[in-house]
Amino acid sequence: SRYPVAELEAITVADDSVRIGALVRHRTLEQGALPDPGLDGLVRGVARHIGHVPVRVRGTFGGSLAHADPAAEWCLVALALGAEVEIARAGGRRVVGIDEFLDSPFSTALQPDEILVGVRLPRRTGWSYGFSEHARTHGAFALAGACVALAHTDGIVRAARVAVMGSGGRAERLTAVEAAITREPIAGAATLAGEAVQASVHPRGYDEVTPDYLRALTGAMVRRATAHALFGAGEVR
Questions:
Q1: CA-closest candidate to residue 227, choices 194, 184, 183
Q2: Reduced to 3 states, what is the DSSP secondary structure of residue 161?
Q3: Given this model, what pLDDT does residue 236 score?
Q4: Are the CB atoms for 200 and 177 separated by under 8 Å?
Q5: CA distance 141 to 49
Q6: What pLDDT, on the 0 to 100 scale, is given for residue 209?
Q7: Is the distance from CB of 118 to CB of 8 less than 8 angstroms?
Q8: What's residue 235's pLDDT?
């Protein structure tokens, strides 16, 4: 069955999600296209770190997820938020969770006769978001990065989703870190999250980048992203 191109290029909002069509450009998202204020702030901040402007003008949200680069920012964000991926083929459509969709480096759940057509990002009332990454130079692929989604009331973390990239073969959720900061006071949550990373990630290292360095760097990214989600503290980088 044919898939309408307009749907592939559209951003639509529902009560519980924002749907980003596969052909929506990075630059469009960087310029504030999402109608959800909380998600828009996160997405605009992340988009600025994707390559350089010519890359952002041409590259697409869906293309990034389908490519599944281990250092791709959108894979990280989708995993942290618990996104759902819409897939189409000649015989129909299906929806899979992002954790099922991301298989291994540059490999996804897409079959040879399927294409990614859209991604749904959940809208969670009262949640806040943080992101941090470190690259050798601006526009280069990140050595490590983290995206954090949090809900907190009365000074206590009530729920958390923490995802990192650069420490393994693909972006991954750190459920142990999530558990470590849930029901903890927000005042020390960022430090606690960074410390919990040390027992949760086991990077391989490569070239001159050692596993110990990557572990420490990932911890720093989680700490910064958590602080940003809680307090808007520090630059999103």
A1: 194
A2: strand
A3: 52
A4: yes
A5: 9
A6: 87
A7: yes
A8: 45
Which tokens hold the place of 214?
A: 């990557």
Burial class, 82, CB count within 10 angstroms (exposed 0-12 / middle 13-18 / buried 19+): middle
Radius of gyration for the chain, computed over Cα atoms and rounded to the nearest angstrom: 17
pLDDT digits (tens, 9 = 90+) for 178-206: 999 999 999 999 999 999 999 999 888 78
Query: Under a CB-based contact definition with an 8 Å cutoff, are residues 114 and 79 in contact?
Result: no
Q: Look at the alpha carbons of 21, 25, 26, 32 in this order and tell me if their dihedral is positive or negative.
A: negative
Q: Is the sign of the CA dihedral 178, 183, 184, 186 positive or negative? A: positive
State percent of the chain over pLDDT 70. Answer: 96
Query: How long, in residues, is the chain?
Result: 237
Three-state DSSP class for residue 97: strand
Q: Which two tokens stand for residue 116?
A: 């990614």
Measured from the Cβ of residue 85, the count of other Cβ atoms closer than 10 Å reads: 25
Beta-ladder partners of 97 = 84
| Alpha carbon distance 166, 182 (integer Å) | 24
